[in-house]
Design brief:
The protein has 334 residues and is an alpha/beta fold. The chain folds into two domains: 85 residues, no CATH class; 237 residues, no CATH class. The strands form two sheets. A six-stranded mixed beta sheet has the order 6-4-7-2-1-8, sandwiched between helices. The longest helix is centred in the first third of the chain and has 32 residues. The protein is elongated.
Length: 334
């Protein structure tokens, strides 16, 4: 038997096993679709080819094997890609920076992660607070309803407070809960220097023109949370297992590519928006560090913020150095 045919059988088996994972109804539906498509291809070939196509049973079976082989091949590629993300998971770090006796710990966060990850980060933050660190925590402050509408329009969807929680449920993870994360930290140790929605809208050079160019604030735009839930409730239990596995793999991949994603977000048509959301918020962190040169500071922000903060500090003084790094895996479920 030729190698090509052996591979075709292997990939066809992979396609059938994969579809069988989702249950008998999905499997039968898949087989019927393949047969219908192949029958259509055979009829078109029979009608438009001048020469005979041979015995229709042999040809259809060969077409079915070819189609299943192709589907199985691409399923194998996707499976290998996602599995690699789980084997080599993305990491976030607690990074200690030093400069002339001043210590800063950047506690990188993932806003969606496993409960074990958040428990570990909570212990880290509590320890830093007991050691006398001031905790700068991330959290965009509310704005006026009009500016919130402008911000949502610029993002392209309604950025509700529960959006992260909805996405987390889809992939069987938890969303960051600041109340729980900082519950046992003394109020005086917690400081927010983050911007408000009003600040973000004001700092966008193009302002509301980004929004009104495509319609009024009251116009329609994507309600991401509702769309996610409407899709989620239609999934079978096995489809939810698959979605969770794929989703955590993609989250891990995006974390490992965070530098590229940061560059992508801050270029292009919405560069001003994302520069404001990411970099202008980082400016407030840098100002606080400059204004408190003798203070030990812990910065509890998303991982996308670290590179800009570190590069900004080094522009102020090349003496800023990384003294210690401790890694953790936000999407690994144990």
């Amino acid at each position: 038997m030729k190698l090509s045919k052996i591979l075709a059988y292997i990939f066809a088996a992979i396609a059938l096993i994969f579809e069988g994972f989702f249950g008998i109804i999905s499997f039968v539906s898949f087989i019927l679709q393949v047969i219908l498509v192949v029958s259509g291809i055979f009829l078109l070939t029979y009608i438009f080819r001048r020469s005979k196509v041979g015995n229709y049973q042999q040809v259809i079976l060969r077409y079915i094997l070819t189609m299943l082989g192709i589907i199985g091949f691409f399923i194998s590629i996707m499976f290998a890609f996602i599995q690699y993300q789980h084997i080599m998971p993305g990491i976030v770090s607690d990074i200690t920076l030093t400069h002339s006796g001043q210590h800063i710990v950047f506690v990188e966060m993932s806003h969606i992660a496993s409960p074990e990850f958040f428990a570990h980060k909570k212990e880290t933050i509590q320890l830093l607070a007991r050691q006398g660190y001031t905790i700068l925590y991330e959290g965009v402050k509310p704005g006026t309803p009009d500016n919130q509408a402008i911000f949502d329009r610029a993002m392209g969807f309604d950025f509700t407070p529960t959006l992260y929680s909805t996405i987390a449920n889809l992939v069987w993870l938890h969303s960051q809960d600041n109340w729980s994360l900082f519950a046992e930290i003394a109020t005086g140790s917690l400081i927010s220097v983050d911007l408000s929605i009003d600040d973000i809208v004001r700092l966008m050079d193009t302002g509301s023109q980004v929004i009104f160019s495509s319609g009024s604030v009251s116009g329609s735009f994507s309600d991401a949370e509702t769309e996610i839930w409407s899709a989620f409730v239609t999934l079978s239990p096995r489809e939810r297992i698959w979605m969770s596995w794929v989703g955590r793999g993609l989250l891990s991949w995006s974390l490992r590519r965070s530098d590229d994603l940061s560059d992508l977000l801050t270029t292009g048509s919405q560069a001003q928006l994302f520069n404001t959301i990411i970099n202008r918020r980082n400016d407030a962190i840098i100002r606080y560090i400059q204004d408190h040169p003798t203070e030990r500071i812990a910065i509890v922000y998303g991982a996308l913020h670290f590179n800009w903060v570190y590069e900004a500090l080094q522009r102020l003084s090349p003496a800023w150095q990384v003294a210690h790094i401790e890694n953790s895996e936000p999407y690994t479920i144990r």
